Prior knowledge:
The chain contains nine helices and no strands. It has helices spanning 2-21, 28-33, 38-61, 63-72, 76-82, 90-101, 105-113, 116-124, 130-152. The mean pLDDT is 85.
Amino acid sequence: MLELAVLPLNVGLASYLLKLVRGKDVVLTEELLAFYKGEYLWKIIGVQIVAGLIIFAFSLLLIIPGIIYGIKFAMLSFVLAEQSSKEMQEEKAYKVSEKLMDGHKMEYFVFQLSFIGWEILCSLTFGILAIWFVPYYMTANAMWYDELKKISK
């Protein structure tokens, strides 16, 4: 049940990082908690649960389709962070994420592979290195999303 409560926090973090990367003034606590209001909360939870189920279903078939669908929905938190509660439609969020990643799946896969060394070092230090790595990783993903948005226009 705790995992469901953290899903809007993930979208709030994505919103915070996007504003930070774009050079806007932003308050961390306001952005993190902004998506816990009203009906938007349930839409975020629903969209991310369905995406997780789709990825899981394709992973049951074979590993490769699960990876492909995981990459298709990799930008879902950022897409949800940019949509307002009135314009948000569940199907639109999936399609926007898929459209952004269209033609860039292999690039994103290689981009994710570039972090393997850091992840190994995090495990060797029993997670202590994660204090520095996780913010770096999350910011890099926000920058990746921002570049995808520029390219797709």
